[in-house]
């Protein structure tokens, strides 16, 4: 299956279990070269609808923060005025001013929080819905390549980081920036010399921030990718719990998990060390500068060059700026993580969806070119045709031999054709091309004369129904699993064809919830539900990948009898391993070495084609059949 994965796509020094070499990796490399700001700007389309509230919230926060800076000025007035003049009424008035200012500041910060809470959860929900929609439209080849944990972590952890960024660092980087500038101006106005002393650490702090940004970006990318890898391991361990327990592999599985979580822990520690370094610089240098300003200020007050009130105001302003300065480290770290989350989110969103859903105009043009108008009058039925079809998996090396090599095959309208071939000969691959789970590398496939490449996917998938070899069921009721959008009236007939009467004996009948992946049902039961799902929509074309492999001989005979009636007026392609399944079909095609090497009836091939006879003889029933 998946051969290369984008696991730990951006982790340079801490590659995941399968170091990535694919396109997504290259993409993340390019994305990393972009600045965090440019990456974050890609969020604008999502933020746009809530921009008014967001800007209003930022404005409110700036006002609140600047109110905080007025408090030192009131203190100066109190110290130099009522306190120096021993005027208790003035002191009380000053205290009242301070109380009102503090109250206004608190109320405004509360108002800001109220302004952003609802819109930001809306942004997160929109982004998550878009991601989910996009994932549904991405080709199967994309899902072959991407581990599910990487996608899950993008839909959960990364989006949560983005919401937190929009709620907090985005506003506060701006608010704190403005507060620092206003505060510095106030300090310079109070006393230029003291102001310059406090400003001295600005240069080393800025340089540290720039260095920190680069290093932290790499570490946060690696950590977030490792979370994705870890999620994949947890998910696989839960889904594969039967295999793990059955083979007693829990120790080795736990070892893999420990190794990965150890790596993640190492990366988180690296992030913590980087953060501690920047905090050390950001907190220590300004504190030393404030200390120096305090000493210098006291000397100047003693010399009579500065009033005590001015020194109090100056130091209160400097202390009021401590949080805006100290928090820069955290805010930058959170912004960096949000930048990485945005990058990871858009790596998926930038992947090209399947053409067809969104490219209806091209589809129409193409069907016109074929001279087979789709909507005005049905095309003459000519069945399912493979014309010179060559296929190589998208992630296969370009010089590798194709899985299917110039396949020509015609299934006439209403005919059933069994596809037989050795394991790994490409039968499943051939069936996957009909509903366009993969696109042909060259050649074309037509349904009633219309090239499926030019057919809108919705139309294609309403004509073609598939029952896969692996009968996946969703965590939903039996009814929902079978219908999947088809009319309710068809349910009973479909369950009848698939001989799935057992569902009526389940605790809630067709409304019984089947567990994740239908694990509460047996393999044969799941296979019958998957078959019912395939026939429920009365498709014109039916593709069945070994649909009866998990059934006992009696159930198989009953399903075959019912299927025969369905197949009588459907064009069907049936992958078959056993003579009993082959006998459902009118003709058989043998797939060998990527080509169709023989087509005929079961009996013709059994007697005229040694490879076919060998494949069928491997089965005792086939052997009997061959001897007859
Ligand atoms: N997603 C994929 N990416 C790359 N190669 C793949 C992929 N799926 C299958 N293959 C390869 O394509 C070849 C044909 O596989 P396919 O599943 O079509 O065989 P099959 O005839 O259906 O086998 P079986 O009878 O065992 O089901 C195999 O060599 C397989 O390794």
UniProtKB/TrEMBL annotation:
Membrane topology of this protein: Multi-pass membrane protein
Residue spans crossing the bilayer: 54-79, 91-111, 164-187, 193-212, 274-296
Location of region: Disordered: 1-31, 355-381
The keyword GTP-binding is assigned to this record: no
InterPro entries: AAA+_ATPase (IPR003593), ABC1_TM_dom (IPR011527), ABC1_TM_sf (IPR036640), ABC_transporter-like_ATP-bd (IPR003439), ABC_transporter-like_CS (IPR017871), P-loop_NTPase (IPR027417), Type_1_exporter (IPR039421)
Domain called ABC transmembrane type-1: residue spans: 55-337
Entry keyword annotation includes Transmembrane: yes
Molecular function in Gene Ontology: ATP binding
Compartments in which it is found: Cell membrane
CDD domains named among the record's database cross-references: ABC_6TM_Rv0194_D1_like (cd18543)
Keywords carried by this UniProt record: ATP-binding, Membrane, Nucleotide-binding, Transmembrane, Transmembrane helix
Pfam families documented for this protein: ABC_membrane (PF00664), ABC_tran (PF00005)
Recorded superkingdom: Bacteria
Entry-linked Gene3D superfamilies: ABC transporter type 1, transmembrane domain (1.20.1560.10), P-loop containing nucleotide triphosphate hydrolases (3.40.50.300)
Signal peptide (residue range): none
ABC transporter domain location: 384-618
Protein name: ABC transporter ATP-binding protein
